């Protein structure tokens, strides 16, 4: 047998004693503090001396921030696969991808039967586990159509709805010793998790052969099965007394052959002694990693992830998959991977990238960028993937996905200072900041990524009261085309700081922002539905009402053409940025006069509640033809042109977002977003096949269009850039582009030509 090349991981196997529940939790916290990777607990539900393992795992996940948690192993007969699938996905989502599913076929059948569980023979228990694996995987597969159906001998589901999808590909690890269980492990599992007390070293080669043969028969690479081992009976002692009974250097000598000769790469220490756990993390783990790395380098061991034949066949010939940096390999996603559908599409664009890299810090972003530039394929960067123009994915190229960089921190509550990861979504940002009575104005949808809004503008429901999202930013961390990690602020790389706030996609990969949030608690949100049959008059009146509204009010209007015998209906969301309900009523009453009111409501709500938030994977709905423009007031001519566009059916979606107020308090040259005198942002969407008709009507707006908001337009070319960046803004951007990205590395998202290029 030989080394499978998996990265080493280390964890603990903690006794879930009910008599001292805090100790069971504290040892997991110590596991994290000691630098270990995994905390696990045995699962014997029939033992009243133990805490319920699932409840304990949930509690521990909430008390820790980095380590993974798992049952070692969960008792399938008393838990059932359908509920396990839902519970596992839920805990994985709540812990941000830190759950692993250790499963056992069952043992101690008297105790299981006493609790109402089935009494199975060994063969039946393996068959039941195999059926359970199929159900669990199917529940997590939210991209498949229809419900989950399996009419098994031991488990059956008939049309169970799929989901939720976990935050990451949950590893299913099986405790297995006998041939049938070993074959099931090779065919369907992600990990093999025996205990050293029940598995002799002499039996390891034969067990690995059974797993490997079963994996190959199932069309899998045997390296897809991680070999894990519970270490029992170990003690860190000053002098050696036997296997795993001695100082740290002896432990390394004892464990090294298990890695190099028997393929084990995850070692889980069964110990409740704090000193042993600390020593395992501080002395044994780093020394063993160093020894293994040295041996692997000498032997030329393949440390890439195992891939099934079908996945290898889906690889793109112009991407060097073997050269993916080691820090990025573990979470890289390729065609053929289970999680590929979760990362391939954008909100609008269907994508077929050859590789998705998922860095978790700026240094890894630099590594990902350097690797991607060595491949002769397109490069795209994704924060939230919500962009209308679909610039966050590609066909056949590399996508750098920032979703793991999603931390939201309030660094100084008194000064209202916050730090936001570029991969966080604004729904998460709003929720965390709201706990401190704070908010940063964003768009109108919680699923939009921080990186997208923080590099373009951020026209949101708090805009007129508190400005654009970029107006709150005080500093940024950016990875530039040459791999530098730079801090950009007013006093540090000031040109870059100016440029990224409005044209950021052209200058590097934004990894985080520092900002000063606004004091915002509850807001008053009103919803209106209007009969917009007389669209020109309605739009003209709407413009007058919004122009006269106090700056605490920001109003968004959405409308489209009528359907069938029904005329067009306009729907408005109007937010009063404060909790003074009397003042809000006074400010909102004029909106009842915009047109015939079909429905209305108003309520006091926390700011996060008004941002729809959907974390489901994007499915690529299809990139529309989208047009964007900024206007200063809605004149009669503008109202008639927009009404004609609606009546013609040239657009199926038209939105007016109110700007002005605090947005216009900022000087036009303060940021690369230079539009500081307009009062409305207008966007219209159409099917690509009717784009020409949309453009005819759009052209009728003429000189009323005074700039544009880049995120809402799918056009490209010099005329788009000149609208988005009026002079002298564009010339300054070209000069800065020549300094930071002269070779146009970042050319996928409304590219700016470098000066002299």
From TrEMBL:
One of its GO terms (molecular function) is FAD binding. It comes from Nocardiopsis flavescens. Belongs to the oxygen-dependent FAD-linked oxidoreductase family. The keyword Glycosyltransferase does not apply. Pfam families: Bac_luciferase, FAD_binding_4. Its cofactor is FAD. Keywords: FAD, Flavoprotein, Oxidoreductase. This is FAD/FMN-containing dehydrogenase. PROSITE patterns: FAD_PCMH. PANTHER family: BINDING OXIDOREDUCTASE, PUTATIVE (AFU_ORTHOLOGUE AFUA_1G17690)-RELATED, FAD-BINDING PCMH-TYPE DOMAIN-CONTAINING PROTEIN. InterPro entries: FAD-bd_PCMH (IPR016166), FAD-bd_PCMH-like_sf (IPR036318), FAD-bd_PCMH_sub1 (IPR016167), FAD-bd_PCMH_sub2 (IPR016169), FAD-linked_Oxidoreductase (IPR050416), Luciferase-like_dom (IPR011251), Luciferase-like_sf (IPR036661), Oxid_FAD_bind_N (IPR006094).
């Amino acid at each position: 047998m030989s080394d499978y090349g998996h990265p080493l991981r280390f964890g603990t196997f903690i006794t879930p004693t009910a008599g001292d529940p805090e100790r069971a939790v504290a040892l997991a916290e110590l596991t994290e503090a000691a630098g270990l990777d995994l905390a696990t607990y045995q699962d014997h539900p029939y033992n009243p001396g133990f805490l319920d393992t699932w409840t304990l795992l949930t509690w521990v996940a909430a008390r820790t921030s980095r380590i993974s948690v798992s049952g070692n192993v969960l008792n399938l007969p008393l838990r059932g696969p359908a509920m396990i699938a839902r519970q596992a996905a839920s805990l994985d989502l709540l812990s941000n991808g830190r759950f692993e599913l250790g499963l056992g076929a069952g043992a101690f059948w008297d105790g299981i039967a006493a609790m109402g569980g089935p009494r199975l023979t060994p063969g039946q228990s393996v068959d039941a586990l195999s059926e359970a694996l199929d159900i669990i995987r199917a529940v997590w597969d939210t991209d498949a159509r229809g419900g989950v159906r399996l009419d098994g001998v031991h488990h059956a589901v008939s049309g169970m709805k799929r989901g939720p999808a976990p935050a990451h590909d949950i590893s299913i690890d099986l405790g297995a010793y006998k041939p049938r269980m070993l074959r099931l492990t090779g065919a369907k599992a992600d990990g093999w998790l025996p205990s050293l007390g029940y598995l002799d070293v002499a039996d390891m080669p034969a067990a690995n052969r059974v797993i490997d043969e079963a994996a190959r028969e199932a069309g899998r690479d045997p390296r897809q099965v991680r070999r894990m081992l519970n270490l029992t009976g170990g003690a860190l002692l000053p002098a050696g007394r036997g296997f795993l009974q001695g100082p740290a250097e002896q432990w390394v000598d004892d464990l090294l052959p298990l890695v190099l000769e028997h393929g084990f790469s995850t070692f889980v220490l069964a110990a409740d002694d704090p000193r042993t756990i600390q020593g395992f993390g501080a002395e044994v783990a780093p020394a063993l990693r160093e020894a293994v790395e040295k041996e692997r380098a000498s032997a030329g061991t393949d440390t890439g992830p195992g891939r099934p034949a079908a996945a290898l066949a889906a690889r793109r010939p112009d991407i060097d998959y073997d050269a993916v940096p080691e820090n990025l390999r573990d979470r890289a996603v390729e065609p053929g991977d289970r999680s590929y559908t979760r990362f391939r599409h954008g909100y609008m664009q269907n994508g077929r990238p050859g590789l998705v890299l998922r860095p978790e810090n700026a240094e890894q972003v630099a590594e990902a960028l350097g690797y991607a530039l060595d491949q002769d394929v397109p490069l795209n960067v994704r924060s939230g993937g919500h962009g209308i123009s679909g610039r966050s994915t590609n066909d056949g190229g590399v996508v750098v996905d920032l979703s793991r960089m999603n931390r939201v921190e309030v660094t100084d509550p008194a000064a209202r200072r916050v730090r936001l990861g570029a991969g966080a979504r604004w729904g998460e940002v709003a929720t965390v900041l709201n706990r401190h009575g704070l908010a940063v104005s964003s768009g109108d949808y919680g699923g939009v990524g921080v990186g997208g809004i923080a590099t373009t503008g951020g026209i949101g429901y708090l805009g007129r009261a508190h400005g654009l999202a970029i107006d709150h930013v005080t500093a940024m961390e950016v990875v530039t085309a040459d791999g530098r990690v730079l801090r950009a602020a007013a006093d540090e790389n000031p040109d870059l700081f100016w440029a990224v706030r409005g044209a950021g996609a052209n200058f590097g990969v934004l990894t985080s922002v520092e900002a000063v949030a606004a004091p915002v608690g509850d807001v008053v949100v009103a919803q209106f539905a209007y009969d917009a049959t007389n669209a020109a008059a309605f739009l003209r009146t709407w413009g007058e009402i919004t122009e006269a509204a106090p700056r605490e009010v920001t109003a968004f209007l959405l409308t489209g053409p009528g359907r069938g015998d029904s005329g067009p209906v306009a729907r408005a969301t109007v937010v009063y940025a404060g909790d003074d309900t009397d003042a809000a009523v006074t400010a909102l009453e004029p909106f009842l006069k915009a047109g015939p009111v079909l429905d209305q409501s108003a309520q006091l709500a926390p700011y996060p509640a008004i941002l729809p938030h959907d974390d489901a994977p994007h499915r690529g709905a299809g990139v529309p033809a989208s047009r964007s423009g900024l206007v200063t007031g809605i004149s009669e001519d503008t109202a008639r042109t927009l009404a004609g566009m609606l009546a013609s059916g040239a657009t199926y979606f038209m939105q007016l977002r109110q700007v002005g107020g605090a947005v216009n308090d900022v000087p036009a040259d303060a940021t690369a977003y230079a539009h500081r005198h307009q009062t409305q942002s207008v966007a219209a969407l159409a099917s690509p096949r009717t784009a020409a008709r949309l453009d005819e009507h759009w052209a009728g707006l003429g000189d009323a269009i005074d700039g544009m908001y880049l995120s809402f337009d799918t056009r490209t070319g010099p005329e788009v850039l000149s609208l988005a960046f009026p002079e002298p803004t564009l010339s300054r951007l070209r000069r800065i582009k020549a300094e930071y990205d002269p070779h146009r590395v970042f050319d996928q998202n409304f590219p700016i030509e470098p000066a002299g290029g």
